[in-house]
Amino acid sequence: MKVALKWGKQSFDVDVDLEHGTVELLRAQIYAVTNVPVDRQKLMSKAWKGMLKDDVALSSLDASKLTQIMLMGSADEVKAPEVKTVFTEDLSSSDLASAGVTYPAGLTNLGNTCYMNSTLQCLRYAPEFREALKEYKGGMTSDLAHNFTSSLRDMFYQLDANIDSIPPILFVDTLRRAFPQFAQQGPRGGYMQQDSDEFLSSLFGTLARQLKQPTTTIKSLDTTDNMVDALFGLEMEETYHRVRCILQSTYIDVSSLQCAETDNEPVISKKEKALKLVCNITKDTNHISEGITIVRTSPLLSMLWSKF
């Protein structure tokens, strides 16, 4: 039940648990709202006479008379904190960086570059990939492939040094000069939407020609000759067998079919390399491909989920 607490000129409503509460609990509640220490509290009410002991159950009091309690006593002085409390949402970007509070930095959209931004943000959180870029040497030259790689490296440095979004102007400019398809403009002059998978393929192809050396962490390129294949390269094997062609029809051209000469031809297998695993998802298909086995995995798996 609610009890009116009168303290000088102030009034408070205190929720009192008559069934399970004690005087000790009541005093603690009063301290919480008035800051008057328990040992200074003098409580008066028509519900009791004289001094109340702390272990007295409130259920033993006359509830009909416990509608108002008078409090006498002085409160503790509330001192202002010596050091002002500062909340992170009130800090500037530079103050947050100085305090060691870090948030993922973003990339400003420079004309429908979301396909690029999302891909690079995913790659940025692959430590081995970042290390390979970090150890790449050289500044801007007349070589577009080199400039592409070095500007990507420098952009990652900028992201690490900021908590706000940065405009990737140099990298986008280099990208559009190296791959003109990403510089296509619409009828109104704005840059057109592009495909992130096409961007990733262009990115991997260029970096594979530039990142030729092992890194501090990846000390060996294994059977590959570049860091892209070493980090993302997959080797897949597809097996199949030919069957004898017994179909003869004037309506179907069977001349292009590869037919077996006997019923017992051996199984044929072929291997191919890839930098990403493509999963085509439809209402009828929820697997990669029958007869395909991944014979070499990679430290980092790039997956493309297609749903059309």
Automatic annotation (TrEMBL):
Which InterPro entries did the record assign? Papain-like_cys_pep_sf, Peptidase_C19_UCH, Ubiquitin-like_dom, Ubiquitin-like_domsf, UBP14-like, USP, USP_CS
Organism this protein belongs to: Aphanomyces astaci
Enzyme Commission number, as recorded: 3.4.19.12
Q: Where is the Ubiquitin-like domain?
A: 22-72
Question: What molecular functions are annotated in GO for this chain?
Answer: cysteine-type deubiquitinase activity; proteasome binding
Q: Which reaction does it catalyse?
A: Thiol-dependent hydrolysis of ester, thioester, amide, peptide and isopeptide bonds formed by the C-terminal Gly of ubiquitin (a 76-residue protein attached to proteins as an intracellular targeting signal)
Q: What is this protein called?
A: ubiquitinyl hydrolase 1
Pfam families linked to this entry: UCH
What residue ranges carry the coiled-coil annotation? none
Please give a single GO biological process term from the UniProt record. Answer: proteasome-mediated ubiquitin-dependent protein catabolic process
Report the superkingdom from the record: Eukaryota
> Which SUPFAM superfamilies does this one have?
Cysteine proteinases, Ubiquitin-like
The reply to whether Methyltransferase figures as a keyword in the UniProt entry is no
- Keywords from the UniProt entry: Hydrolase, Protease, Thiol protease, Ubl conjugation pathway
Enzyme class comes to: hydrolase
PANTHER family, sorted:
UBIQUITIN CARBOXYL-TERMINAL HYDROLASE, UBIQUITIN CARBOXYL-TERMINAL HYDROLASE 14
Q: Where is the USP domain?
A: 105-308
